[in-house]
Amino acid sequence: MQQFVDRAKPSHYHTPLVRAALQADVPIWLYGEAGSGKSTAGEQAANSLGLPFRSISLGPTTSKSDLMGYRDATGNYHSTAFREVYENGGVFTLDEIDSGHPGILTILNSALANGHGEFPDSRVPRHEMARFIASANTIGRGATSEYVGRAPIDAATIDRFAFIPMDTDEDLEEALILGTEINRSPLDISAGEVPSPKEWLATVRAHRQALGELGIRAIISQRASLYGVRLAELGVGKDWLGEMLLYKGMKEHDREKLAENAKRLMPKVQEALDYKTREATKDEELDESHSESSQETQPKDTEKRSDSEWFTPPEDKEITIDRTNTRWLEKSVDRSMRRFLPDCYNIDKLDMSDYDTSIFVRVCWDLESIHSRELTDRLLQMPTIIEAVERVFRENNSSTEKRVLVSDIIAAANIEGQYWQRDRGYITQWETEDDDNDHIKVEVHDRIEFVKDHFSQLNDHDVQDYAKQFEACHGFVPGRFTLCNWLRQHPDVGGKRPRSH
Asked: What is the 3-state secondary structure of 81-123?
């Protein structure tokens, strides 16, 4: 009965989007002016879905124990509202998230990313109906003239949320104050038409590529693809998907540039996804001898086969960084590079149980999926990694050590230096265009040769096709090491011996 009562109450115009996101298990960031109805919208959406609602207001003094609970002097664990929702299901709102201490956000990132939470008494799996909302007066970029006490939020945290604007709803204001009815058409969450999974994937990739070319400081990761498909299944259209997952309150000038460049890139991205057309075209262009020699190793149509049965993406690692040794990650990556790049890489000796190796594989994965950049054997890239570690560490000046996810460090990396730029060839790509300069052409050639050197049965076309197949499965273009790691497990490739060194 309570659900029907709540539906009859006046609600914010954007509440249907909040409800859809909760149903789709997409964490949401509600942003708008103070008193615009953010918390109320979250509670009403929770009640309409029959889920309990709990919340906490974050501030500079909010501690880890306020969120995760604590053990007292006798060893008894004291629970919290966050723990109750995390373990038993419900909707939990982190109010004023842009006022929270960075250390709290790191804990939240870990709990949302890993599917389990490290509570003081035990590791707790996240309940399948646990949902999370963040509310704020800003979009996480720091203080404004109106909200001077707000701190900038790291990119890894922002990436985990879909953004919904919650401007003041004057119709709702009148209904609450004057007792009038709200006479308006409900929000059309399907605006812009609901995309197919393939269409949305192409949209995300085009925007991601445009982001890399323009150098706009933002992240469009795999989550944009995954969240978008879930929301589309509930009837959310492209207009709102773009607002929630691609632009996220972006300045109008940057939004227009990004949209314009993404539109320019869409035809190429869509063509890459159209595997049946690509295979037919390739068969017409390749001569008969190439078709016969490469028939054994031709990639299967990605739409016919998922790699989830034989490939598991590298696990995001939680590491401890110490103020006295902030270069630890650099040294770990350096050890792995000397072992694997470029000449010593051997798929038969790759040991994922080795700690340095697992860190290295994850660093490569995050650089490519978040920034579309490749880690190479050029040690001049290392200052970027060092600065990212130090930037993450500075978020918590009160402690001597800090536990943080590798993905959070890489998300904080500033890849605007010359050793990461597209015109130098360091953006991940496997094909060249007519207007590409010599640097790009050389890097693409070397990237393909690197893979062929370790899988001698493949030719240039095979490598490029497998790179596209990987992209279709995982939503980003792989670098040379990530592709090799994937190919070594591929049932059509990995069982064959690499070329000996």
From this structure: HHHHHHHHCEEEEEECHHHCCHHHHHHHHHHHHHCEEECCCCE
